[in-house]
Design a protein that fits this description.
The protein is α/β, with parallel strands linked by helices and 386 residues long. It contains 13 helices and 16 strands.
């Protein structure tokens, strides 16, 4: 029996995937796994039974990922599950930032009470909200992951030119990208060409403040910037200065903060990127499937702190989370040899400083073998799945 703790309201289509082997609740004590959306987990103490955390979404800034790795807790996210929802909001942002839709809506509502004069007032005042069409303009996409690719391809369909940059563009991602999208090896080439720029990179120390005074200075005058990824990807002081000087025509963000609210030509949305029932369902289902496969089979897919690895096994499976250092694998396998246990199959994968080894073994995996494996230097955690 596995206990699953939910820290946020998780769509039922996800939690319903847990069968009779599971109990799912928002007050589970010492859980085997946690499902979370946006709840802050950095101050949480994790019990010794906690094996995994499933984030129903892409960003994991609310989870202490490194701390989890040190304790042998695999953290999963759900890349691509909310990609279409975010893509649609980006397209909305392109249009409302061009046509000054929020300002126009507010102005039109203010005409209430003018009776038969409203029509004439509309005709007289509408010119102040004129803005360009997006067709024929150039969209710069920083980050060509699941969301960035959808945005780029959709923009091509809308008649835009698209130039994209991704430091880690994968072969699979490149194959999904429209051949009409121009990719560049330096973000400066995006800044120089784009009339609109949208950011789709994860937030980390390297990407913090991607939109800053230096990058803004390299952009075209009158650029419109869209940031629906993470608020910290933009230096708000630099953005405000750019808006005040006219360098930036509009800034759309899904992450309002006190300093940016009320600034002219800022369109602040209340974190709506993944706020669709379809995205919430997709994320919940994917997170549940990832947790079930790991808890029951030891397979890892879409982890942010350990490598992807899977194995089909008919015998006992021994799963070892360990540091990615020389000789540790030979030390692990030697434990089996000393106890005369044959290794039928083995899979090993690494992700930066962490690694994962799965071993299908014939013979009796005793508590002593587990204890000996746990005693190997640089081994973090050992699980036996029978």
């Amino acid at each position: 029996m596995y206990n699953i703790l939910t820290l946020n309201k998780i769509a039922a289509c996800g939690t319903d995937l847990f069968d009779e082997k599971y109990t799912v609740s928002d007050n589970a004590a010492d859980p085997d796994a946690i499902m979370v959306r946006s709840a802050k987990m950095h101050d949480m103490e994790f019990g010794k039974n906690l094996l995994a955390i499933g984030r129903a979404g892409a960003g994991v800034n609310n989870i202490p990922v490194d701390k989890c790795a040190e304790q042998g807790i695999v953290v999963f996210n759900t890349p691509g599950a909310n990609a279409n929802a975010v893509k649609e909001l980006v397209l909305t942002a392109l249009l409302i930032s061009s046509r000054r839709v929020p300002d126009a809506l507010g102005w039109a509502q203010g005409l209430k009470g003018n009776g038969s004069e409203v029509g004439a007032m509309v005709e007289k005042g509408k010119s102040q909200f004129a803005g360009p069409e997006i067709k024929g303009k150039t969209l710069g996409v920083i980050g060509l992951g699941a969301i960035g690719i959808l945005v780029a391809n959709a923009a091509i369909s809308l008649g835009m030119k698209v130039v994209g940059y991704d430091k880690f563009l994968s072969v699979n991602a490149a194959l999904r990208l429209s051949s009409k999208v121009t990719t560049v090896s330096d973000p400066k080439d995006v800044y120089a060409q784009a009339d609109y720029i949208t950011i789709h990179v994860p937030y980390n120390p390297e990407t913090k403040g991607t939109v800053n005074a230096e990058s803004i200075a390299l952009m075209k005058d009158g650029v419109r910037i869209i940031n629906l990824a993470r608020g910290e990807l933009a230096d708000n002081d630099a953005v405000i200065a750019g808006l005040e000087s006219g360098k930036i025509a509009a800034y759309v963000t899904d992450f309002p903060s006190d300093d940016i609210l009320g600034v002219k030509n800022v369109i602040a949305l209340p974190h709506l990127g993944a706020s669709t029932p379809e995205a919430e369902d997709n994320c919940a289902v994917m997170a549940a499937e990832e947790l079930i496969d790991y808890l029951e089979n030891g397979n890892i897919k879409n982890s942010v702190n350990f490598p992807n690895a899977s194995m089909d096994a008919v015998g006992t499976k021994v799963c070892v989370l360990h540091k990615n250092v020389p000789s540790v694998i030979s030390e692990i396998t030697s434990v089996f040899g000393k106890d005369n246990i044959n290794i039928e199959n083995m899979v090993n994968a690494s992700r930066k400083e962490n690694a994962y080894t799965m071993i299908e073994a014939s013979g009796d995996i005793t508590d002593k073998i587990v204890t000996d494996l746990e005693a190997v230097e640089n081994v973090i955690r050992v699980r036996v799945i029978r």
